[in-house]
Design a protein that fits this description.
The structure is a homodimer.
Chain A: H1 21-25, H2 38-48, H3 75-85, E1 90-91, H4 94-99, H5 106-113, E2 123-125, H6 130-143, E3 147-150, E4 167-170, E5 178-182, E6 187-190, H7 196-204, H8 206-209, E7 216-217, H9 230-235, H10 243-246, H11 249-252, E8 253-260, E9 263-266, H12 279-282, E10 292-299, E11 301-302, E12 309-315, H13 318-329, E13 338-342, H14 344-353, H15 360-367, E14 376-382, H16 386-402, E15 406-407, H17 411-418, H18 424-431, E16 435-445, H19 446-461, E17 467-472, E18 475-476, E19 479-489, H20 493-509, H21 525-532, H22 534-547
Parallel strand pairs in A: 2-4, 3-4
Antiparallel strand pairs in A: 1-2, 5-6, 6-10, 7-11, 8-9, 8-10, 12-14, 12-15, 13-14, 13-17, 16-19, 17-19, 18-19
Helix pairs in contact in A: 2-14, 3-6, 13-16, 19-20, 21-22
Chain lengths: 560, 560
């Protein structure tokens, strides 16, 4: 018999059954798989106190077919909708209604694996263009039918749930087109359903695809990049892996056009304006609760990938790594595009995942006084005009050295960069054996960072046998974000919910933002009133009531 | 008899009479004066078709005393207000009521010179602290008394007018204090009435004044700097001369606290957050129409003045200068803090003002094909960490050379920098001889810049004998601003208003923003509905109605 360490679980590497729950819950490409590395699996086994026997029998895989479920929308309303978009752009099949109303939160996945059908819409509609949206919103406003919007489906905050049924508009089917590209202004206007890769490729190949003089980048790369939509970035206040230079999604938006029950409007395209509170700001992050985004104009940047320079450093402690990160962010020499700091636990896992533990680097680190359990990894990439990149890299190195950082070349960063969008695939493999991976994230000022980190870790670790990895990955002069990944075995949904809520509670109580870039959805909604205070929530409700007097737009979203 | 060119008008260089209209209208320091240079006066005489006789008799100087004017607020209400702030912090003297309700718009000045008392408040109140503001807003909400806020008094958009009388709160008297400084987060929290110089000096001398490790800068220097308030920057969406690097006022705000008729709230301090539409954004630019700003937390930056590097270039045309400005802004090498491009007319005036016309530089320029009437000046200053500054300067020079720019050293820029806050003093001197100087400004995308410039110039020049100088001074990757200065002789107020309105009309019709950084006030208010559209105005009105149901906060401001 093989030794435990060598046993490799039978990972499920076949495409999900057609029309199954699994085909809905599975991350990304139906034919793509990524299993935990031997090193990562070893970490998990150790930390979660598992043995090989835990990897013999699979948990519910969700490979059973979705059964039909009744709907409550009237035949007359369905007929009206069909009249607007045509028979081919409407579906009342339960499979579709489930598919387009479930995101990628751990709880979504757990329910789907168990074959649960909950909070789905009555009908899925694929509008062809803005005019369809106008007609649908008018109809639904008159008939008081809830309206929800599906972009890329990567919500991890129950943003797509339809607790009152109604219509889900899928914008990625048809409303995914280029509207216009303006090379002089360096802006692009697209329909909101365009996905990240289509958007970025069009810009990268702008000379060929847009008859442009130069190539461009959108500078926005959330981990969900491949399955996210441009509209989704904007309405959920997303943030990409290169945000430290390019800005968050909110910073990239020049203009937006919305269809609301009250009427339609498009904000004017200006680089800046002083004409009172800006609708372009007010609508960002509205998560479909005020109206439907039908076109968006974004900043683009000259694409200069040949200039990219990677760096990696090891620090003796989280404190020293964070100090370097703060000094870089406040250094007035320009920011690297990507900057990431892993805490000690994430660093240890990374060392094992990449097979570095026990090797030469590990030994050398030990010699340098950078010990397992306290050492922390920083990595990043500088982008831009060549001499700017050189300046940033030189100054980053200086700040790191000043904080006892040890340069590990750009190699680990390049390794991470290559696989940066494929990690979510691993979750399905682990889930198959009942191991949960979930994430919660927050933004925080420098001063409050370590207190938040300690408090949240304590709550996560209160559950025995849990991995809690944390990183900061979006940097600002005033602070950063903390992204908590927790891995544990917890088959009961009720238990998981209680656990997750205790973590959210701890984030809120310790002064972190309820979300840095995942948005609010229905997951954070119960905390919103306490978090913002009644007065601020009342202002959001007043805007909601004005634009959506019948309360049909994504009811329950944002806690409104 | 002396030749015309040598005649120097008898400029009025005595402090205004006590309690006179002039003491209200005069810019800045009562004892400070700046008269047009010989060169500038020559330009004005030529362009406006004036002779020495136009500089013999002064127009109305406004040196007469302000006479008492009745007020309508009830004795009971006055007594209530007095009970809140104390007798010493309240005034019903007409002089005070006029002083704190007039800004620095050309029309304000004209009316004051004519001794007009119009749209003033009933009572001036100097709240001591936030709690006073709470009590006053509560009283005024109950009694339906209008409430206005005075910060630095530098509004050029009738932002301080009180068409329905009521109370004016002067925040610069007492509510001008430091609340806290956080060096780790690089933020400072102040009361809104703190003036620019106090704020900046405190930061520049942070080691001495704030027990900080380093010195800081706020990075915000509007032309009104010396007489502007931090709160004013935020609620009017101001922009400083160094905005191309540091950002506009709106970009500097981390958190705000407001007292509204509906209640009070303070937005939470985060570097970023994804918890729905942000009150911190919604309140920016609200110009006192939603509530009273009582504290604001701003970003600060390490102060590195020794690294500053100046540059000046001459270009053969406005087109080539703007092309260089655009390429700098889109260059991905970091931005200079200050960047300014003067159009041909402003360049010619500058050459004469600085006595350069006809000199060696002028002749050399001619030799280079840079002729009067078409050549354009660009100047700027790079700031930040030393190697960043070097990179920016090197790349700026490269972009300028590529667009036929000729390097004129940093000298003219240093000259401008030295006098940058004193130019407004010249207006009073010229006004004394009936010569108007007014400014209107707009933001615009690169693509629309030249069309806007030509259209507005045509309308300005439709009035014969008018100087129209234009510059771009706030740069973004997507566009810039155009700042129009027009100088003419037009004694009749009604004629001036018609003229000014025709210029605003032309800005709006040509697709410029109604304002880049002057704000809306009551001057732009009549255009707001057309500019933003009914749907967007209705959203602003809905927020107003929610926070201020009795419509007491700065009535008529923003066009709400």
């Amino acid at each position: 018999m093989k030794k435990n360490a060598d046993l490799i679980p039978q990972w499920l590497e076949t495409a999900p059954q057609k029309d199954s729950f699994r085909s809905i819950l599975k991350w990304g490409d139906k034919q793509a798989f990524k299993n935990p590395s031997k090193g990562f699996l070893k970490v998990i086994k150790q930390a979660l106190n598992l043995t090989d026997t835990d990897f013999i029998t699979m948990d519910k895989t969700g490979n059973q077919a979705v059964k039909e479920s009744p709907l409550t929308l009237s035949r007359a309303n369905l007929a009206e909708l069909e009249k607007i978009v045509g028979k081919e752009n409407l579906s009342i099949a339960t499979y579709d209604r489930l598919k387009y109303t479930k995101g990628k939160a751990m709880e979504d996945i757990m329910r789907l694996r168990q074959g649960q059908i909950k909070d789905i819409c009555d009908v899925v509609v694929h509008p062809r263009h803005k005019q369809d949206v106008v007609s649908i919103v008018r109809l639904c406003h008159g008939q008081k039918i809830p309206v929800h919007v599906y972009g890329g489906g990567s919500s991890v905050t129950f943003g797509l749930d339809c607790p009152r049924g109604g219509v889900t508009l899928v914008l990625s089917t048809h409303m995914n087109k280029l509207i216009c590209f303006n090379e002089t202004n360096q802006t692009i206007t697209v329909e909101p359903g365009m996905t990240g890769p289509v958007y970025e490729e069009m810009l990268n190949y702008a000379p060929q695809k847009l008859s442009a003089k130069k190539a461009y980048t959108g500078g926005h790369f959330p981990q969900s990049f491949e399955f996210s939509s441009v509209g989704g970035w904007v309405v959920t206040l997303g943030s990409g892996q290169a945000s430290s230079l390019y800005g968050d999604a909110a910073d990239l938006v020049i203009s937006q056009e919305y269809i609301t029950p009250k009427g339609s409007f498009k904000t004017i395209e200006y680089p800046a304006t002083a004409t009172g509170p800006k609708l372009n700001d007010i609508m960002k992050g509205s998560e479909g609760c005020f109206g439907v985004l039908v076109s968006v104009t974004m900043k683009v940047f000259e694409y200069l990938p040949d200039n990219n320079r990677q760096f990696t450093f090891m620090f003796p402690s989280f404190e020293s790594a964070v100090a370097a990160g703060r000094q870089i962010s406040q250094g007035r020499f320009g920011m690297p595009a990507i900057l990431r700091i892993s805490d000690a636990e994430e660093t240890d896992v990374a060392m094992q995942m990449y097979g570095l533990e026990g090797g030469v680097i590990d030994k050398f680190m030990g010699f340098k006084g950078m010990k397992k359990g306290s050492r922390c990894l920083m990595m990043g990439q500088a982008e831009g005009e060549r001499s700017f990149v050189d300046t940033v890299l030189r100054q980053v190195k200086k700040k790191c050295r000043e904080n006892q950082g040890f340069y590990l070349t750009g190699y680990p960063m390049r390794k991470w960069y290559k696989g940066r969008f494929s990690d979510p695939y691993m979750r399905d493999a682990l889930n198959d054996y009942g191991i949960l991976i979930d994430t919660l994230e927050s933004s925080v000022t420098w001063e409050n960072l370590h207190a938040l980190h300690k408090t949240v870790r304590k709550v996560v670790k209160a559950n025995p046998h849990t991995i809690c990895m944390t990183h900061a990955s979006h940097f600002y002069a005033q602070g950063t974000n903390l992204y908590f990944i927790f891995i544990t075995k917890m088959p009961a949904l009720a238990e998981f919910r209680t656990y997750q809520q205790s973590i959210i509670d701890s984030i809120e109580a310790a002064g972190g933002s309820l979300s840095h870039h995942h948005g609010v959805g229905r997951m954070m909604a119960p905390w919103m009133e306490r978090h913002l205070g009644g007065e601020q929530m009342a202002v959001l409700r007043a805007i909601k009531t004005h634009l959506d007097p019948n309360g049909i737009m994504n009811p329950g979203g944002l806690g409104l």
